[in-house]
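Need tokens for this chain, all 86 residues.
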Amino acid sequence: MPDEIKVNDGGGLLDNIGMIDSLIVDCNTSVKTLVEGNYIAFCNKMCEMVRKLNLLKNGVKETIESRNQHIKELEIMLNGGEVNAS
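Here are the structure tokens for all 86 residues:
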């Protein structure tokens, strides 16, 4: 298990790696909750994990789009063009 869940420096929000670490912890906690017979708490944890997975999916998508845009800008600069500041 991770000793410390990583956060980015933007207001305490989890970065993608930190989100994955928290999901690993959630998986462990969920199994314990289920084995203890706390079925409603287990279902709640599953809902939380789905929300986190959706946030992770959106975060990865944004990261990829941002990197693709950055690559395009660098290619333009490499070819002697100017990048529009938008």
